[in-house]
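Model: You mentioned two targets. I'll fold them one after the other.
Researcher: Yes, keep them separate.
Model: Target one:
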Amino acid sequence: MVNVHVLEAGKIVETVARLRDRIGERFPDSGLARVAADLTGTAQETAARVQALSRPYFGLRFLAAVVVAAGLAAQVYVGGLVDWAAVLRRSDVVAISQGLDSAVNLLLLAFAAIWFVLTLEARWKRRAVLRRLYELRSFAHVVDMHQLTKDPTIVLAGGPRTASSPERRMSEFELSRYLDYCAEMLALIAKLAALYAGRVQDPAVISAVNEVEALTSDLGRKIWQKIMIISRLAEQPTR
C-alpha cells in the first residue's frame, strides 16, 4: 500500500522533467531552459541518493559491532588482571581510589570510542546530505538571478532605455509564463530538499532543509508579486 503522506522521489523527478520540457518548448534558447535541464539531472541524482540513504552501511555496522565487542573484552581482561582480594586485604584507601580512577578513565575512553564508531554512519550521511543541500540552495539563487531583470512595469508600460538596460523582448503572456516557471522551479527545489529530511532524521539535516524551504519560499513570494503586478496592469483600461 502506498503511503500518501510520503513524498515520492520518482513523481518529483517526473514533474521536474515535465517542467524542463515546458520551458524548453516555450523558451528554447533561454538560460532558464538550461537551468531546468541541469535541475532535472540533479533531481534524478537526488532520487538515487535518497534511495541509497535508506539502505544501511553494513560495513560500518560490522565495524561498530567489532569495536563494541573488543571494548567489552578489553574491560573484562583488564579487570581480570587486578588482584582484587589482595587490594581489599591491604585496605589501602589511596590505592583503591587510584585503581578505581584508572578503571573509570578506561571505561570512559572505551565508551567514547564505541560511541564514535556507532555514530559514524549517521555522521557520514549527514555530511553527504548537507553537501547536496548546499547544491540545491545554489540552484535557488541561480533561478532568482534569471528572473531578477524581469520587471513587469518596464515590459508592460515601456520607457526609455539606457545603454546598460537588459533586453526585454517578452510579451505580457510570455513574461507571465517565464515568472511562473521560475516559481515552479523554486517549489520543486524545496521538494527535492524535503526528500532528504524524509530519509535522514537528523536535527542538522532537518534544520538545513527548513532553511532551503524558507529560501525558496521567500524568493517565490517575490516572483508572485511580479505576477500580481502583471495581472493588475493587464486589468487597467487602455486610454
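Model: Target two:
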Amino acid sequence: MNKHLVELVELSKIDKSVDSFTPQIEAAQNKIAREQNKVDEVTQKIESLQKIIEDNSGKIVTYEEQITTIDEQLKDIQKKNKIITSEREMKALSMEEELAKEKLTFANEEIERLGKVNNVKKADTEELEATLEELSVSVEDIKKVAQKELSSIEKQKEGLYKKRVDSVSTIDQKILAFYEKVRKWAGNTAVVAVKKQACYGCYMKINDKTYSEVIRGEEIIGCPHCGRILYLDRETSEVEA
C-alpha cells in the first residue's frame, strides 16, 4: 500500500479514537446537567414560594395598618355620637360606622386567610429546602464521579493528540490538506475501507477500474460517488476470498 495512504489510514484511526470520546464526555456532562436542572427547578420553586409569602406578608401589614386606621375612625364616630343634634347626623354616622365595621371584618378575614396561605407555603418551602439539600449533595457526588471520568478521558486524549502530532509531522502537507478537506464534511469517514467492491462510506459499488486501483494501492484514490479516500481492507478481503 502507498506509504502516504498507510499514513492517512493510521491518522484516520487516531482521529476516530479521539472523536470516540465525545459521546463519553457528553454523557458525563449530561449527568451533571440533568441533576443541576433538578436543583435549579427546586430553587425556582422555593424562590416563587418565598415571593408569594413576601407579597402576602406585605398585604397583611397593609391590612393591619387599615385596621389601626379603622379603629381610630370608630373611636371618632363614638365621640361624634355623643354630640349629634339631629336624626340626619345620626343616620350618616350610623352608615359610616357600618361601612367601617365591614372594612374591619374584611381586613381581619384577609389577614387570617393570608396567614393560613403563608403557613402552607412555608411548609412547602421547608419540604423543598430539604429536597434541595439532598439534590445538592447528589449533584456534588455526580460531579466528582464525572470529573474523574473526564480527567481520565483527557489523559487518554492527550496521548492520542501527541500521537496525532507525531503522525501529522511525517505526512506530506498537500496530502494532509486533502485529507483535512475531505474530513471537514465526511468527519471520521474521510478514509474508508473498500469491502465487497463497495465504498464503506457511501456504500455504493465502485467500478472495476477504480477497484483495481484501490487493490494496487499505489495512489490515493477517492470514491467516484462520494469523494472519500479509499483503501483496501486486506483482512476482510482475505476472508471474503
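Researcher: Noted. Anything on target two?
Model: Strands lie at 191-195, 198-199, 221-222, 229-232.
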